[in-house]
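Structure ticket #2291
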Amino acid sequence: MRCFIALALLLGLSLTAFAEDIRLQPLKDLNGYFPFTPPRSLPEWEQRKEYVRRQILLAAGLWPMPTKTPLNAVIHGRIDGDGYIVEKVYFESAPGFFVTGNLYRPKNIQGRVPGVMFAHGHRENARLYLTPDDTLRKSIADGAERFERAGRSTYQSQCRQLTRMGCVVWQWDMLSDSDSIQFSRQLVHGFAKQRPEMNTTKNWGLYSPQAEAHCQNILGLQTLNAVRGLDFLLSLPEVDPQRIAITGASGGGTQTMLLAAIDDRIQLSFPVVMVSTAMQGGCTCENASLLRVNTGNVEFAALFAPKPQGMNSADDWTKEMAAKGFPELQQLYALFGKKDNVYLKRGEHFPHNYNAVTRSAFYTFLNKHFQLGWPAPVIETDFDPLPPDQLTVWDDEHPAPKAADPEFERRLLAWFTEDAQQQVLAAATTPNGLQKLIRPAVEVLIGRTLANAGDVEWTLQDEQDRGEFLERTGTLLNKTYGEEVKVVILCPKQGNGRAVVWLDDQGVTALRNADGSLKPAVQKLVQAGAAVLGADLLFQGGDPVKQTRVVATPREFAGYTFGYNHTLFAQRTHDVLTIVRFLRQATGGPCPNPKSVAIAGWRNTGPLVAAGGALAGEALDRVAVDTQGFRFAKLLDYRDPLFLPGGAKYLDLPGLLALHAPRPLWLAGEGADPALVTAAYRAAASGDGLVTFTGDAAQQEAAAGLWLLK
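Resolution: structure written out below.
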């Protein structure tokens, strides 16, 4: 509590107003607690499932999915093994962006056979890795491995065993690993400090505020590689599209969960040492802004229900899975009548790895559900692993791309930016395109809509009779979310049933001049009979917040904070929705049941009102916004109070404004003819619903006030 009080005092906040606001608690990080609450019904789950799946896609930069360009796959360097063959593969998941790996196939394939995708974790050079002698001896002594030869490469052992069972296996490299050299290991896994040369409004690099504003991140690149890897696997004529599985451990377990969650082509999933209510994945390659806000890995695994899914526990963050997480997954599977389709292999006596015991559990699970006909349990046999130089993809005939090339990094992100912009613009020009693509995206960016804005309760703290009107000061308590908003409501004694929300950076004090008199525009609204509500949105009402809070880490990666917590921009938009919900649900309190509700946003609060108004829909009759030409894509600091991951991708602020059509919108700061917004209103056959103001800034509030009274 002391830290909450200190924070409030530092920011100049009222302790009384925010004493119960849950948002003053410490920020959540990847080491928090992430329980999964099973749904009460399947219809309830389908709605939740759609949202979380969309959240993953959006956080990974895959909403919409980047254009699937030709893979240009190259398969070469066949190696004959005992009953199977190994080949070297590379293809392009995006133009010039190479995915590398090995393809294992059984010899003498009859008909179509299962395909297995095998993702690896953070072991350096994993696909080419050979276990040192001392490590291998200890693993054999502990029962984690069985063989002195096969144990030297657990990756090859797994691929070989799966081919013996009749499967085609695609084992690919994570970014910066083995033959995937276009990004450095330091950038992918060890990024710590923002790079000034990459933090620009054009030609930016990963981890920059611009990349975050376009949902461009390492996790997303790896997930795209997994999607395109599945495309590659399914392009092989011998692979059965009805029997596709994926597995992987640690970071590979993260990739397993994500691909299984977002791609319906996966039919069996087995994430290892990763499904947990505890630590969610510590690497920059496992985190992304927006990804785990109000969700977590157990729910990610739940998205795969009711299809067959196995997982395990070990002496790591998964060790409590049998009691926390797995029972809830069983409850969900039971709703489908498929409780036996989810399986936990317990192994708390083993450390964090994908050992022979767990591999056997995977083989046996796969054998059962794909009906491969092997006696259970399925156990590996010994063999001599191939040396790394026989597995590496690049050679003189197949030269490697340039390693760790910053210009390639810039070009790749520029391609994703242009591709997304073309898709979003194309959608925006189709009937209902804004509502089908951009609105669902904004719902995730903000993390709340008016429909789930919460149950709001009004508490009166003070009332003053000002002659023509009553001035009521109080607090809106959002009981659903434990949030509070301080408000002042000016209620005319001869009201006309209208309510106008007047929001500004200065909070409730924005209703008045420095001498305490009402601002002229506010006074005219009250004199005309409209109730006017001012509010201190989160952390307003004191000195302006110049930088938002971040979690306690020296690493300057937005995803470590905003992958688990709403941004301040989103939280203040929540307050806007709380206010609108209060006015529309009010059956008591000041000025109940207004016939119409309008809202105006000034200065840096204008973009918040643009977002809130877009999500409030028909609950708002009129919206007035001064944007001051703000764009998310221009921010150069991910701690800026207006920072919003993904904010620039969906046509930036004009995209939010376009969502207001056809409702009346008064707009300043965007010029006389803002093309996108104008087009949206014309498409909605409501061209006269948009009013643009280009006059003197000092006259804005007066002009907007008159328009709000129409």
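Closing remark: The radius of gyration is 28 Å.
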